[in-house]
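Extended Data, panel c. Modelled sequence:
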Amino acid sequence: MALCRHGLTEANKKRAYLGWTDSPLCHQPSPLVTTYEGYFTSDLGRCVSTLQAFFPEVEPIQMSELREMHFGDFEGCTFDDLKDNEAYNQWLNHYKDAATPNGESFQQFVRRIDRGWLKMIREVKNNHWQRSFIVTHAGVIRHLLARFAPDERAYWDWNVSHDFYYELLFLKKAFEKGDRAFSLKKVSI
């Protein structure tokens, strides 16, 4: 299972919180010279556009479960915009317990991702795919790596960039049971 972050957006350049709000890509990525059997993407435009640029001939499965966290009132704002906001500071200091105003909590976010992962496992199993490519968001990838990478690391310990993607390699039974991968590889784009 390859986990790839969408291409760089205008909002990413400003370091704004970009959850369910969309922002155009700064440039179209070049096609990748590798193939997979299954293709999944968040249903947000920046992910769909990235996957279509990488693999112009495929029709991906779009999944709302692969969306970034919904940042609610913080959507589109930067740290400088929010640094004096009490609700923001409360959320930063207690991100696993506090929800963003009019957004979702970390627990709601990871439960949604986990539901999406189970759907992908079923799709991969039903189609007998050996290799699948997922274009999604940094927070989603961090959660999946924290949960399935062979070396256990905390959520914030994972570097997720626009310049590379991760490939998780699973034994078939481990994949189907939701166990950790046996190998992790970082692939430059």
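Strands lie at 2-5, 38-42, 61-63, 132-136, 164-169, 183-188. This feature is highlighted in the accompanying rendering.
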